[in-house]
Each structure stands twice: as structure tokens, then as C-alpha cells.
Design goal:
Strand order of the largest sheet: 1-2-3
Structural class: alpha+beta
Order of helices and strands: EEEHEEEHHHH
Radius of gyration: 17 Å
Number of domains: 2
Strand content: 15-25%
Number of strands: 6
Oligomer: single chain
Length: 152
Amino acid sequence: MRQDARHTLTLKLPPSAHSEALEDFKVFSEFEVRVSDIDTMQRILSYLGYQPRQAYEKKREIFENDDMQCCLDQMPFGNFLELEGPPQKIMAMVSILGLDWRKRITATYLSIFGRLKQDLNLPFNDITFSNFADIQTDLSDYFRRFEASADM
């Protein structure tokens, strides 16, 4: 469930061996539906046996051009640029912005948080700005150490 200007229920599936996933790109299948009443949708999911497991907050600015999106994401643990679109347009944007493709992070925000939680022994499960307010570690230095890491 996502709550921003709209309420959206999303199913996001990682690439499978049968998908047309490209080796250098993170390609997920997404299915979304708008929800007019978030409280009722949460009750429906609860009746079906689903319970909230983790919440996370994100602030996002989206810049669009044709079928290309540049998303500036502010997460409680850092700022990220997410490029969405056809591979050739993504690579063109990487070139225009002068980015080093080898330093990209393909891990999801949830898996990045899982690693942070383990490495920093964080006592919380929800990724919220208030939970990270008292974290004393410079997370930009933390991410620099993992730029070349194959699992990020």
C-alpha cells in the first residue's frame, strides 16, 4: 500500500528466469491499482490474512521526458537517483549526467535497509525519518564503501 497524493495498492515482482530481464538493469514487473478508500483496503487485506510487516517513508521528485523518468528519492538513510525507462534512454541519461555506471546500486531500498540494520545494529524495523533522526553515523561515507560492491 502506498499513500501519497493517491492511494495505490502495488504488487512488485522481481525478475524471474522466464522474464526478459536485462543483466545490467533492475527490471521488476509492477501491477498497480488506485484505491479510493485506504482504510477499507487495509481491512480487506487483513481479512485475506495480510498484515503490515514494514513501513517506509520516501520523498520523491519526478522529472519526466517522453518515456524516461528521473526520480530523486530522499530516503531516511540517504538520497538516491532512480532512472526509469528503456535501457538505451537510461544509458543516454547516465552519459548526459556524467554518472559512472559502474557505481550504480541495484539493491532495493528494503535490502539496503536490511544491510544497514545488520551492520549498524539498528533496533527498529520501520524505515522512517523519525527512526533515523538520532543515527550518528555518516551514511554517505557508509555508501561510498559499498559503491563497487557486487551485492549493492
